[in-house]
Amino acid sequence: MALGQGGNTPGNSPGGILISPQGLIQQALAAPINPAPPSRQLREKALTALPETLRQPAEIRLLSLRSLDSQLATLAAAGTPIPAELRYLAGLTRIDAIVLSPDNTDLILAGPAEPFAAVRGNRMVGLHSGRPVLCLEDLLAAFRDTDILDAAGCSIDPDSERLAAAHNWLTRNSAPATVAVAKARLEQMVRLQGRWNVTTFGVPEDSRMCLAMVEADYLMKRIAIGADTTGIRGLKSSLALARPGDNMMRRWWFAPAPGTLTVSADRSSWTLLGPRLQLFAQEEVMDDNGNLLDISTKHGSADEFAALFNRHLPELTQKIPAFADLQNILDVLAAVAVCRELQAAGTLQFQPQMLDDPAVLPGRSWPVPRETLPLLTSRSASAGLILGAFSGGVTFRSRQLVRMASLPDSPTTPNSANSTPNRSLTVSRQTLGNMPDGKVWKDLTTPPVQGDSD
Q1: Confidence label for 37 from pLDDT (cuts 50, 70 and 90)
Q2: Of the four listed, 27, 90, 183, 285, which is most buried by Cβ atoms within 10 Å?
Q3: Given pLDDT bands bounded at 50, 70 and 90, which one contains residue 375?
Q4: Which of residues 24 and 199 earns the better pLDDT score?
Q5: Where are the domains of the chain?
Q6: In sequence order, what are the residues at sequence separation of 6 or more whose Cβ sits closer than 8 angstroms to the Cβ of residue 47?
Q7: Quick check: 347 and 100 in contact, CB under 8 A?
Q8: How far is Cα 61 from Cα 47, in angstroms, rounded to an integer?
């Protein structure tokens, strides 16, 4: 039984990029996440298709991994398609807490949830916030791949041989020139570089998770070079921040923000905090063969862009769904890494069957792009033309994130309104209780302990 059967099946591309049959990113569509409220017709159709228990938003919804696994096994045995409420994890829009059940036989995921429907690009989003909901496909990828928890991500980079050829050509044609001549040189640089390579690692190369990582990385770089404007006041592109004489070989990559994950003293309750993501910056130089090498620099415009991007990340995730989707992926990877640690320690007495078994419950194959047009741009300045080429990607080390989790209120824990856009949540094992047998989700009615709010 393929995961994509039944219900609202996603399209071949995510909502933010268009991919050619040859695997080339053709176009970016960094549109606002929720430019208009869902139509009444869409809302009514979506609500009718969902179970009554999922038709209202929930501040805290609990999802049982043990019951989810059991329900998937029952559906597979009967040859029944997986319903949307399971394929989209009961409408969870993020994971705020990961808690070991009191009887040690279950791992519970807790977070806000909404009724959901497919919108532009067939992205599944909550009907109230417009934020992407979590996907079972990502959970399956995280459980089934042996390397994904050690390091998973992507990178978009120029081909080293073509980059060297383009750089050598520019060196021979760098005499002072008019703006028109300088722009013609840039066009030739683009032609010489050809398409850039999209490399993925750790994550299954045909998975939805892999595609979502590439989408987020690509749209981030378009913002960096100024190809897409976000409408966010104060957020400038890296090219706009650049000054004549700056090194314009830059690398940016997404990684977990420090202090994202905290853990109770007995390591039975884990809390995800803040923006989850942080954009890191590195300036580079190129050797004679076109290889990009990291260099140590003083604070420059590459760092300035990363700082601005991180400062505005809460607004970016509201406007551009790819970034919210990347947050969700980090949440899922963290949850599975916690599960694996508790299993290895003998604390969690639960071994998933369906979540682990691709032979019985195969995931869907997604068309992950392998090339893109050069991420290269320029702007006029008093000293001539400033040229920027920006590489980098996504790197999530989930096992490391779990091993480095701090106790709540440690110096690394985000605690300000600016650094913690999402309300933090602490759910004790006693408050949680055991999930009723066979019940995949339930809404928490007992008030939990709340942390800082936005």
Answers
A1: low
A2: 90
A3: confident
A4: 199
A5: 17-159+195-450
A6: 55, 115, 127
A7: yes
A8: 17
pTM of the model: 0.85
| 220 sits in which H/E element | helix 208-224
- Which amino acid, residue 121? G
> Token digits for 127?
């009907």
Region for residue 231 given its phi and psi (left: phi exceeds 0; alpha: psi -120 to 50; beta: otherwise): left
Question: What's the token pair of residue 353?
Answer: 């069957």
Query: Do the Cβ atoms of 389 and 249 come closer than 8 Å?
Result: yes
Which residues are registered as beta bridge partners of 281? Answer: 252
Question: What are the tokens at 92?
Answer: 């969870």
Q: Are 301 and 390 in contact (CB under 8 A)?
A: no
Q: Work out the pLDDT band at 4, boundaries 50, 70, 90.
A: very low
CA distance linking residue 439 with residue 407, whole number of Å: 31
Task: Give dist(CA 223, CA 309) in Å, integer.
Answer: 9
- Concatenating the DSSP letter of every residue in 52-111 gives GGGSS-EEEEEEEHHHHHHHHHHHHHHTPPPPHHHHTGGGB----EEEE-TTSS-EEEEE
Over residues 324-373, the pLDDT tens digits come to: 999 999 999 999 999 999 999 999 999 998 888 888 788 788 889 998 88
Burial-class residue 243 by CB neighbours within 10 Å (0-12, 13-18, 19+): exposed
Give me the amino acid identity at 233.
Answer: R
The H-or-E segment that residue 303 falls in is helix 301-311
Identify the DSSP state of 235: -
Confidence grade of residue 254 (pLDDT, cut at 50, 70, 90): very high
Strands in 97-100's sheet, in edge-to-edge order, are 261-263, 269-272, 97-100, 107-113, 58-64, 441-443
Nearest C-alpha neighbor of 116 from the set 103, 105, 108, 125: 125
Stated length of the chain: 454
Per-residue model confidence (pLDDT) at position 439: 92
Name the 3-class secondary structure at 186: helix
Structure tokens at 379: 């702007």
Confidence class for position 108, pLDDT limits 50, 70, 90: very high
Cβ(176)–Cβ(392) under 8 Å? no
pLDDT of residue 386: 53
